[in-house]
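User: structure tokens for this one?
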Amino acid sequence: MKVVATNRKAKHNYNLLETYEAGIELKGTEVKSLRTKGCSIDDAFARVEGKEVFIYNMHIPEFEKSSYFKVNARRVRKLLLKKREIKRLLGATTQKGLTLIPLKVFFNDRGWAKVEISLAKGRHVYDKKKKIKEEIEKREAERAMKKYHKRH
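Assistant:
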């Protein structure tokens, strides 16, 4: 598995509930561009529309060596999921107020471009601060334990 891009802010800004692996419908030289330059999914989000899932604001740069087939770098791309997964996501996003956030874009073992999306709930500022404080306390406790075990 070759990871092309990750969304580092996702775990900080959202509570991640469930993750799904989806294929991406790409056109022309977008696959070559993904393999060479990668992409950006920092501002990206996904939406369920009817019986299909689309990803917005995913930036795949233009492939320079292409002669005539050029596509918009930020075009809306279709995600390929199973029917039951789409129905589940549709219910969760409409009723519970959850969103779909891409976590990473990668190539699987077979060479297919995939995106890992997560069903997520947005965090408030005070939740973010609380999580950072907990992580710092946990790190300090681990250091203290390590230091204690070295002495004894």
